[in-house]
Each structure stands twice: as structure tokens, then as C-alpha cells.
Amino acid sequence: MSTAPIRVLIADGQPIVLEGLRSVLRQHQTIQIVGEAIDGVEAIDKTVFLEPDVVLMDLKLPRVDGLTVLRSIQTRAPNAKVILFASADNKEEFVEAMKLGCSGILLKDAGTGLIEKSIQKVHAGEIWLDSNTTAAVIRQFASPAELQASHVNGKTGRERAQLSQREREIIVLIAQGYKNKEIAEKMFITEQTVKNHLHNVFDKLGVSDRLELALYAIHNSLHLKPA
């Protein structure tokens, strides 16, 4: 049974980067490049017109910056999932990008194999962040200003949720940026068991994703408590 390829739009202000992305992605039959953009205005227009499944774009685009492009795409082409292709120097903007609905952040110094993998994961409905990026996002979320502004602060009662010792251990590792597979290896349990624990944790604390869980953990100092 054949599966339709993932339709991808790539956007970057540097022709050599576009050339590199084009070269890498064309090696994968599961991905189809439907368009290219060299600035933010073009990225918005082509996303709306071409309706790609995934947009892989630079955070620092000419004419209109990546965050503004992301806002526009969320409004005008909400079905398109966006992966920011960013430099590690832009980490202070990662939190804002995630809040605006970004589905993933791929660092420009990542291996070429992660480009295809990130697109596959995001298209499947997952969030793509490597452990270093997750840790950077969490640190930004944990700043006093972010904590004050966070909607987590208004949710009383979750602090009283009864977490098991194993669930607390997993929360500590999540807050440190570990993936499910890495947590499973560290705790000598199966990846499915980790997923089951996370499902229970999400339900108990009323959080919807790993980033909110990490923020909750830091807000309540759970990430500092010994396992």
C-alpha cells in the first residue's frame, strides 16, 4: 500500500542552505518538496497557496522574521506544521516560537539524518526538540518572568496530586530533557511503561504535553527533589 509523500515547503534566506536542504530531502521518497521561499513574505504566501504539510524554515528570514511568519501561518494556514531551522544562538526565541504553535526546532548544526526524521515526527503529530533544545526551552520557561506569566500558576489543586515515586523520577528526567527511550534505559523499564507513567502524570497534573510538565516540575521544584 503506497502512502502519499509528506509535502514540505523550505524557506531560508541563504541560497546555499536551500540547496543543501533540497539535496538532503530529495534523497527521501517519503518527502516531496512542493516549494521554496527566500524570505518571510514569500514563506507566508507560498504556505497559504501551496498548503504544505510541513514548513521547514529559518528563524531569521529576510523582510519578515520567523516568529512573525509563524504567527501568520497559524492564522492563515493552520494545518501546516512548522519546524524552525535555527541556530543555537537563537535559544531565547525558542520559547516564544513554541507558544506560537511551532511543532519543532531543528538546530542547524544537527546531523543531516535528523532533518528527515524531524519532518516525519512532526507530520505524525509529535513535537520535535532534541534534548539540548528541550533543556534550553525549559530553562527559559523556568525564568521568574515566565513563571509569573504562565497559566500554570492559576491552576491550584494540582500541587495536591498524589504522584508515585516512579512518576516523580520520570518527571525529573523529563525536566532534564530526556526522551522516553532514554528514560526507559536509565530506569531499566520498557518505553511503553514510560509512556504509561507519563499518561498517568499528565492526567494527575492536568498538563497536556512535556513542556508544560517540565514547567510544572520546575515551578514546584519537583526537578530538584532526589529520586
Protein described:
The protein is of the alpha/beta class and about 230 residues long. It folds into 2 domains: about 5-130, Response regulator (Rossmann fold); about 140-225, Response regulator (Rossmann fold), CATH 3.40.50. Helices cover about 50% and strands about 10% of the residues. It has 11 helices and 5 strands, in the order E-H-E-H-E-H-E-H-E-H-H-H-H-H-H-H. It has helices spanning about 15-25, 40-50, 65-75, 95-100, 115-125, 130-140, 145-150, 165-175, 180-185, 190-205, 210-220, and strands spanning about 5-10, 30-35, 55-60, 80-85, 105. The protein has a 5-stranded parallel beta sheet, with helices on both faces. Helix 1 links the parallel strand 1 (about 5-10) and strand 2. Helix 2 (about 40-50) runs parallel beside helix 3. The chain is elongated, with a radius of gyration of 19 Å.
Task: Spell out the key features of this protein.
five-stranded parallel beta sheet, 227 residues, 5 strands, alpha/beta, 11 helices
